[in-house]
Specification:
Strand content: 15-25%
CATH superfamily of the largest domain: Cysteine proteinases
CATH architecture of the largest domain: Alpha-Beta Complex
Largest sheet: 5 strands, antiparallel
Structural class: alpha+beta
CATH topology of the largest domain: Cathepsin B, Chain A
Order of helices and strands: HHEHHHEHEEEEHEEE
Number of domains: 2
Length: 248
């Protein structure tokens, strides 16, 4: 075989190999972003339940075993699911305290729609609930008695709650997060669950705004900067740092 034929054979093999990869990626829905994300995934601390977190001082890292639920479980981003980040965050934290290991799409979808219907009946709306309104759902709908909303919080305040075994729900200016998996620029207003942090400066979150949101990492400063409560009177972000914490 001469060199020209050899080069052509190599080109053909490369083309066939690339085609196989593209076809496999199509059928198994494996995107380049997903592959890169998997390769760059940091080692996370072992997931823990509340009973295991009993520290005298703040540890260098922690990761609570909070199950993940997306706000659009079946990837249907309609007018309802565009607005259910608060509800999804509540379902995840409720699942944590009930020691649920996995929230299936069917369970998440049913839970979200029930919460939406409940809020419509009680207050006439469900969109853009602020920290206080969202916390009230934990009491009135889920039945939790120990629910607190804290304002003007710091990064250390968030860490302390996590160390006590309490996942933290935070309201956010979603576009400040810069999450590449959000639709478009991302939501103006958003909520997610902080479930831990790493020793190298990242919060571990369950972000319901994307199907890739389980164990999603945000740098401390990036997430903290985005924390903003919703002002229902002004219909805008007030900028106040707030967090919702509950316990049994």
């Amino acid at each position: 075989m001469n060199r020209k034929k050899a080069d052509k054979s190599i080109q053909t093999l490369v083309f066939l190999f690339a085609t196989v990869l593209l076809v496999a990626g199509f059928f198994y829905r494996v995107s380049i972003k997903d592959a890169l994300a998997a390769l760059s995934q940091r080692r996370l601390p072992r997931p823990q339940i509340a009973a295991e977190t009993n520290y005298a001082a703040i540890p260098s890292e922690i990761n609570l075993a909070v199950p993940f639920a997306a706000q659009a479980p079946y990837r249907v981003w309609d007018a309802v699911h565009e607005e259910t980040c608060e509800e999804a965050s509540l379902l995840m934290v409720d699942g944590y305290y009930k020691k649920v290991k996995k929230i299936t799409p069917a369970v998440a979808e049913a839970g979200l729609l029930k919460l939406v219907d409940y809020q419509k009946k009680i207050s006439g709306f469900f969109e853009d609930t602020d920290a206080a309104q969202t916390a009230k759902l934990l009491k009135d709908y889920f039945g939790y008695k120990k629910v607190a909303v804290s304002y003007d919080i710091t990064i250390v305040d968030i860490k302390r709650e996590l160390v006590l075994g309490r996942p933290v729900i935070v309201p956010l200016a979603g576009r400040l997060l810069g999450n590449p998996y959000f639709r478009g620029a991302g939501p103006d207003y958003h909520m997610l669950v902080i479930k831990g942090y790493t020793k190298d400066g990242f919060f571990i979150t369950n972000d319901p705004g994307t199907r890739r949101g389980a164990d999603y990492l945000y740098k401390f400063d990036k997430l903290y900067q985005a924390i903003n409560d919703w002002d229902s009177q002004k219909q805008a972000l007030s900028g106040r740092k707030a967090m919702i914490v509950m316990s049994r």
